[in-house]
Amino acid sequence: MEKEFIPYTLALRLKQLGFDEPCFAGFNPTPFDYDDLENLIYPTIHLEFDGEDIIYNDFQTEEPNIWTIDSDVILAPTWQSAFKWFREKYNLKTCIMFRTSMEDDKEYYDWLIKGQEVVYRHFNTPEEAEIACLTKLIEIVKSKTK
Amino acid sequence: MKKEFLDYTEALALKELGFDEPCFGRYYYKESYPMLNPNSEETELVFEFDQYIKQTEITILAPIYQQAFRWFREKYELHSCIHSDYTWNISGGIWDLNEYKGSRYDWDYSNNYSTYEEAELSCLEKLIEIVEKN
Fold first, then answer.
1. What separation in angstroms does the CA of A108 have from each of A125, A128, B21, B126?
2. Distance between CA B38 and CA B96 in Å, rounded?
3. pTM for the complete prediction?
4. B3, B35, B95, B98, B105 from A97: Cα distances, Å
5. Distance between CA B124 and CA B63 in Å, rounded?
6. What are the structural domain ranges in chain B?
7. Least CA distance to B79: which residue of chain A?
8. B50 Cα to chain A: minimum distance (Å)
9. CA dihedral B41, B45, B49, B55 (to 10 degrees)
């Protein structure tokens, strides 16, 4: 399920921008192996015990008490929660578009950010387009807050 | 975090269409909120990302939205996206959908919805409807 989360480098940049929303997972802030950062993702949500029985935690509340996390951890947002954060906090609305080329029927993906110049780069996968889009969002916010 | 997940109705529809992938949550009976989906029935404190309890008659996996949209894209070549209208001048959202039909893609789009989330839900319902029909 690692693919549900944005990469470490982008998660770190989001943290620097102030992202602090409940997440399913985080990256270890003090990894043992710096060459293997992507694999150091770990869950931030735990099951609780009451004696011998498991109390199954649920996601009923918006601020679940199961979100136990220390301030050093680098939160690992899902793609949807990262894009939602930019949408709601900065009114930066995005979409990852699927298109086919009229010339050769080739399939490709591009990103759009409302209010930004459209630059078609024709990514081969939606994941590549998502990374590029998120990188652009971070750049926009960073430039605005300088 | 409840908003990350599909509602019970859509999660049930996906189960009936054959969705069966690791999920962070699951619905138990007809509860209106998803519960954490642990990696096993054993008393594990932390769940493993690539392991999960399989669905049963009374449990339904609760995908997050991105999982559901990816599943339709990868399994049925149904490519969708949610965005503002083409003039980008109004709030809310619309969906746009490319459905592979043999040798070409058919394109469809919705009317404007007042919020992004409403457009997202409508898109998901449309995807379910398409697969159910086929």
1. 7, 10, 26, 23
2. 35
3. 0.85
4. 23, 32, 11, 10, 14
5. 12
6. 2-63, 67-133
7. A98
8. 6
9. 20
Distance CA A69, CA B39 (A): 20
Tell me the per-residue pLDDT of B20-58, one tens digit each, with 9 for 90 and over.
988 888 887 776 667 666 554 443 334 455 556 667 777
Specify the length of chain A in residues: 146
Most B CBs within 10 Å: which of A48, A58, A117, A125, as the mutation test of the B interface? A58
For residue A59, which of B66, B6, B13 has the smallest C-alpha distance? B6
CB contact under 8 A, A98 and B2: no
Tens-digit pLDDT profile for residues B4-14: 899 999 999 99
Q: Which H helix or E strand runs over B133?
A: helix B116-133
Q: What are phi and psi of A108, to 5 degrees?
A: -155, 170
3-state secondary structure of B35: strand
CB-based contact (8 Å) between A94 and chain B?
yes
Which residues of chain B lie closer than 8 angstroms to A115, CB-CB? 88
Determine whether domain A78-146 maps to CATH 3.30.160.
Answer: yes
Interface contact flag, B81 A22, Cβ < 8 Å: no
Distance CA A106, CA B77 (A): 14
Q: Verify whether the Cβ–Cβ distance B35 to A56 is below 8 Å.
A: yes
* Domain residue extents for chain A: 1-77, 78-146
Contact B4 A66 (CB under 8 A): no
Tell me the two tokens of residue A13: 């940049």
Does B24 contact A at CB distance below 8 Å?
yes
